[in-house]
Specification:
Blueprint: E1 8-10, E2 16-20, E3 23-26, E4 34-36, H1 41-49, H2 56-66, H3 70-82, E5 86-88, H4 93-100, H5 103-108, H6 110-119, H7 125-134, E6 137-141, H8 145-156, E7 161-165
Parallel strand pairs: 6-7
Antiparallel strand pairs: 1-5, 2-3, 3-4
Length: 190
């Protein structure tokens, strides 16, 4: 990641833990954990700035204030990006940019984005996949206990359009956590 319009951010799904005064670990599972060492005070302060709210020009400015040169910033951001620890808060293409403006939808799918960013580590890949999910149309046939729950999970995960086909009415045995509520008994399933 080096475009000047990039907004580097540490991936929120990776917990950060200091092993000692000069060693920081991102992530806890062995498959995803990345250890950075040695980390001096300036670098530790700079890591706090990687929250996705600043572009590189501003990061260079603020890094200079803590004693890091633009070259050191570039090297650190590149190293963390290659290790899969950094994402670009502005990446993902036009569809991802359009969905960032929809705060309610963005808030609801934040856990999905966090996990997609780990599974697809390149900057912007998680946002692109989530945006692609929003363009999907899924049809669920049958809205009983299982179908209604599946439709609910698909809608909550950001699938753009979930169409439920069922001509029956809700029965007491259709009620389930995450699916149809008890107050829906007697209503149309569709």
């Amino acid at each position: 990641m080096h475009p000047m319009d990039a907004h580097p951010m540490l991936k929120p799904a990776l917990r950060r833990a200091w092993r000692d005064r000069q060693t920081v670990q991102f992530g806890v599972t062995p498959a995803r954990a990345v250890v950075l060492s040695p980390v001096d005070t300036a670098t530790g302060s700079f890591l706090e700035l990687l929250d996705g709210t600043r572009g590189l020009p501003l990061l260079y400015e603020e890094a200079r204030a803590v004693g890091l040169s633009p070259g050191q910033v570039d090297a650190l951001v590149r190293r963390l990006t290659e290790a899969g620890v950094v994402d670009d808060a502005t990446a993902g293409g036009p569809a991802a940019r359009a969905s960032r403006g929809r705060t309610e939808a963005s808030d609801r799918t934040r856990p999905d984005l966090a996990s997609l960013c780990l599974v697809h580590p390149e900057p912007g890949a998680g946002a692109r996949r989530l945006a692609a999910r929003r363009s999907l149309r899924v049809q669920v046939r049958g809205a009983g206990r299982v179908g209604a729950t599946i439709a609910s999970v698909l809608a909550a995960s950001g699938v753009g359009r979930v169409e439920v086909l069922d001509g029956g009415t809700v029965r007491p045995w259709d009620v389930a956590p995450g699916g149809l509520p008890g107050r829906a008994v007697g209503e149309r399933r569709g």
